Amino acid sequence: MSDNILEERARRFLSALRHCQVLGIAVHDASAAGLTLRLPYSTQIIGNPETGVIHGGAITTLMDTTCGISTVCVLPEFEICPTLDLRIDYMRPAEPHKDVYGFAECYRVTENVIFTRGYAYQDNPDEPIAHVVGAFMRMGKGSPKLDVAKKPEVAQ
């Protein structure tokens, strides 16, 4: 599958997640190697008003979403894959006034579970803000699904 198709699938999946729309999360890159999403800095997601540091919940949302959507980079067809387990190790706070990027890859795919790993960073992927590992349950192609072949409607 081409990187352009993967990026489009990732964008369509992301566009159906209202909380990600509110946070302004966007696809930065998608390929067979993994997915990178961008969380723009905003005053709405500040956790500490004195320092301007982003709230950990926004980073958690970014990384859960990045790991979950990274499944479209390895599956031949779209499947709903809800989070079974997610662990995030925070290494340091994000610097204020800078976007945060989340990268995730699927490192093992079984019949029932997809295993992911990744990291959050700002300027340099070699200086992570956090590391993440996650497990996502495969619901199968026959389950109710989000149709990534057409653009979903956004609830107002």
TrEMBL record:
Coiled-coil annotated residue ranges, if any: none
Ranges of residues in domain Thioesterase: 52-126
Keywords recorded for this protein, A-Z: Hydrolase
GO molecular function: 1,4-dihydroxy-2-naphthoyl-CoA thioesterase activity
Pfam families found in the cross-reference section: 4HBT (PF03061)
UniProt keyword annotation of Hydrolase present: yes
Tree of life domain: Bacteria
InterPro entries for this protein: HotDog_dom_sf, PAAI_dom, Thioestr_dom
Membrane-spanning intervals of the chain: none
CDD domains cross-referenced by the UniProt entry: PaaI_thioesterase
GO cellular component: cytosol
UniProt-listed PANTHER family: 1,4-DIHYDROXY-2-NAPHTHOYL-COA THIOESTERASE 1, BLR7284 PROTEIN
Protein's recorded name: PaaI family thioesterase
Source organism of the structure: Aquipseudomonas ullengensis
